[in-house]
Amino acid sequence: MSELDKQTFLSNGITPQTQSKQPGVEKEMDPTPIYELESHVGSGKLKGKVALITGGDSGIGKAVAIGYAKEGADIAISYLDEHEDAEQTKKRIEEEGVKCTLHPGDVVDEDFCFSVVEDVIKEHGKLNILVNNAARQEVKNSVTEISAEQLKHTFDVNFFSMVYFTKAAIPHLTGGDSLIYTASINPYTGNKALIDYTSTKGAIVAFARSVAQELAEKAIRVNGVAPGPIWTPLIPATMTTELQESFGVSTPLGRPGQPADLVEPYILLASEGSAYMTGQFIHVNGGGYMSS
């Protein structure tokens, strides 16, 4: 049994809780997410590369940032305003002997997205990997409850920001570099409580596969990861305590995922190990897609 399975075996291991603001903060979570495993020892897969990760202060983005740092990459993190989480993540990354810069601001603003990429080029000298990961969600019982404001905001954060960052990054990428997108199991299965969120993730899959075709001739790879239920600050910030009590337990593996469960797929997609992969999405969901 793995280290992660032992901690959540036969239970989701979650104490139901709430936070008042998205995307949530790590210090208020019980238990705190697991971002890294002792078994992950870097081997230089990303040495000399620079990675920009949106939503990299906590959750999946934080786990990926730490994983990339262990593999030798310098890191730039875009995040909203969770400064304490971001500083703690930066500190952990720099313990790996690499450089980390922080770029706070709202990704719904196209000018901000372009300015982040420009700042990364100025401070790091280049950009090799863009992980489009920032997201929001709101649980609603029916599509009729989704306001126009919510619909627009969800698409602004989840989808349009990724388009902005992609447009800003492409001129700086060369052969062997990678664009990586965080999708979800939901567009493959549907989710009646997260209809607008699910729709944005479906749009991301379609967008990534289309851009993959465009950039193939330049040998720039475009792939993504489709996570299932992952214990991140976004969950207590958006889900009811009732939903949290059963979070992840219906998967065949019987537990929610942890951010650490996602690290290796993101490393694969950023490294030469995926040199013959583009337009692909790796499913990490405890078997949830299989059993849906």
From TrEMBL:
<keyword id="KW-0560">Oxidoreductase</keyword>
<dbReference type="GO" id="GO:0008206">
    <property type="term" value="P:bile acid metabolic process"/>
</dbReference>
<dbReference type="InterPro" id="IPR020904">
    <property type="entry name" value="Sc_DH/Rdtase_CS"/>
</dbReference>
<comment type="similarity">
    <text>Belongs to the short-chain dehydrogenases/reductases (SDR) family.</text>
</comment>
<dbReference type="Pfam" id="PF13561">
    <property type="entry name" value="adh_short_C2"/>
</dbReference>
<feature type="compositionally biased region" description="Polar residues">
    <location>
        <begin position="8"/>
        <end position="22"/>
    </location>
</feature>
<dbReference type="InterPro" id="IPR036291">
    <property type="entry name" value="NAD(P)-bd_dom_sf"/>
</dbReference>
<protein>
    <submittedName>
        <fullName>Short-chain dehydrogenase</fullName>
    </submittedName>
</protein>
<feature type="region of interest" description="Disordered">
    <location>
        <begin position="1"/>
        <end position="29"/>
    </location>
</feature>
<dbReference type="GO" id="GO:0016614">
    <property type="term" value="F:oxidoreductase activity, acting on CH-OH group of donors"/>
</dbReference>
<dbReference type="InterPro" id="IPR002347">
    <property type="entry name" value="SDR_fam"/>
</dbReference>
